[in-house]
Amino acid sequence: MDPGVLYTLVYLLLCFFIIFPTTEIESFGLTVDNLCSRYLTGDNFVQYHMKLTTVKMLIHFTMPATYVGYMRLLRWLNPDDFKPHLSPMVAHFNHHGLLLAAVLLLAALAVAVAVYWAWNGWSNHPTAKHLQQFINETTMRDWRAVATNINDECRRVTKMVVRLNTLSKLVVTENWIVEIRQYGINVAHQNAAVMIVCEVNTQDVITDTIEESQFVNITVHQLHQQRQQQQRQQGTTSFKLRLNGVHYNDLRDRVRCPVHVLPSVKFQSLNDRFVEAFREVIARNGTVVPAAGPIAGDSCLACLQAQPDVKIEKRCLDVDQAGNLLPDADRCEPCHCRPHWCLSCLAVWFASRQERSEWNTWLSRKATCPMCRARFCVLDVCYLEPNVPTDADAAQR
Ligand SMILES: [Zn+2]
Ligand SMILES: [Zn+2]
Ligand SMILES: [Zn+2]
């Protein structure tokens, strides 16, 4: 391989992991956050994050310029590697001044922005401008007072910190909701904020527990009172949070501001989702008229509410997925029990007999009848024929 291409790939990989550090890299402490926390120790929460975002911005936007320097250094160190076949990429940088100028201009721009942000005690930093929205005439007269208030609360042990993803974090204190992002922070004051749960996504990610794969999308709306030309104006700003489902209840209990859940949002546990999938399969299995119907007026033995509406009736062919006949020990067995359970409860029972971590194979597994212990699969569960005669009907006749 051309050494130029190889070195470029190594550099790109390095850049990728600097921008998106994995948990392994974090555990070694090799992230920008970690290295900065060693040198910016004297700073408070807000000021520290202002400096951190500046350092990150500088590193990320000078990456192309660093690449040029890195390639030149390598060429200087091993001139023999590069001489015989000069890669077109390197040649481009050597002879095409325009690209080099653009790269250096980007780096210079990043430095200029960093200097501008730091000017006048960081008052020009986007975070300082963001905090200016919370100024009032009494307690918080400028953004520094707002920052001091946030810093004080962030120092308390009662704060809640949740990692949202590799790039962002959520901090909830008594009065503030702070989202820390790659290049800045989003802040809301709980006295004038509303959280709206807009959506719950379920993602099939590979984790130890399925519950971790549910994500809650929350929009935080912040109402601002602004004084403009002797006139009070109201405005709102908002930002979005994407929170792992396991932290949702904690967050809801912690915040003081109202949390509204849109009617379209459905929180589903693993069991809820399985019941839904189970119901879909059973609907395709057809119906059955059992030899002995449910006893009139009896409700499901598990929930004591719904009417029993399914029966285990062996219908599968005892073959595996490849179509081979199963050994005797694995075959489903006939169940002669009366219908005693409703579909949801039978589905929950079925799920409870399975290995929790192998949730994606549950539908292809088997369980035993809760009454007679006969083995059954999802193909062996049928809805009762809508007008199954009950014992009471038979007695009347
Ligand atoms: Zn039930
Ligand atoms: Zn049975
Ligand atoms: Zn079966």
TrEMBL record:
It comes from the Eukaryota. It is found in: Membrane. The keyword Zinc does not apply. Keywords: Membrane, Transmembrane, Transmembrane helix. The chain crosses the membrane at residues 6-23, 57-77, 97-119. InterPro entries: TM129. Its main location: membrane. It holds the Pfam family Tmpp129. It is a multi-pass membrane protein. GO terms for biological process: protein ubiquitination. GO terms for molecular function: ubiquitin protein ligase activity. One of its GO terms (cellular component) is endoplasmic reticulum. Belongs to the TMEM129 family. PANTHER family: E3 UBIQUITIN-PROTEIN LIGASE TM129 (PTHR31322). This is Transmembrane protein 129. It comes from Anopheles darlingi (Mosquito). The lineage of its organism: Eukaryota, Metazoa, Ecdysozoa, Arthropoda, Hexapoda.
